[in-house]
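User: Second chain of the day. Same drill as before.
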Amino acid sequence: MKICDYGCGKEGKHQFKNGKWCCSESHNSCESKKERSITGNSGKHKRSIDFCKQMSNLKRGFKHTEKSLIKIRGPRRKIEKIKNKYIEFSKMEEMRYNPENIREIQVHCKNSECINSKENLGWFTPTGRQLECRIAECEKGNKKGFIYCSKKCKIDDPDFHKKIDLETRKNFLKYRRLVDRYTNISIKKYGLINIELRGRKQGFSLDHKYSVWDGFINNIEPKIIGHIKNLKIIKINENSVKHKKSEIKIEELLKEINIFKKEDAKIII
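Assistant: Same format as last time:
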């Protein structure tokens, strides 16, 4: 009886051109040959048999436990490291790994009425930027920069506008939407200098010279607040410092708009 020349010890059923006998039609199908290639004896990268089995099962849709998944992939950010490094943040914010994807860290939404809030035992996955900003504010000792799961939750949060009653806040939001609408129309029609710099990457934002809040309080038409002569691009930190303050008076703005209308009419003619 011929024995397999590739080390498995089984009967050699097939003879190759080089004179060697093998238990299978191909020497790559021999169990001994397979084992040597997996463990790295053939000179390739060394991989354990268990690791290869785990990865193959993962591709086939095999459901691993959380521990086995952590060993294979591991979370992008580790909660333990965040707690050790940022103590103040850890005191204020509760964290956990997403049960459906352990690479994600989840937190509570600040809006108490949201389904993702702590009060409703909800969780959501924030962006990396949200975590960074919240950590920075907590470490400075500031009570701001809270994490919300959406812009709607931020606006609807009662604590976000503590000094404004509910009815006034709703009316202001309606007014703000109209201002944003006319603002976009003005930019599309006339264009705005340095509008391409708008965004966090470049560090600039759109500013209304006569503020939206003052326009709401003084019953100014949204068309006037959203007019191109009331718009400019400034740095984000300057805009946040300015907040609700206006840098020009309404009389000055109306004069600029009237002059602009006359010049625009001449161009059309």
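The beta strands are 14-15, 21-22, 96-98, 101-106, 204-208, 231-235.

User: Great, on to the next one.
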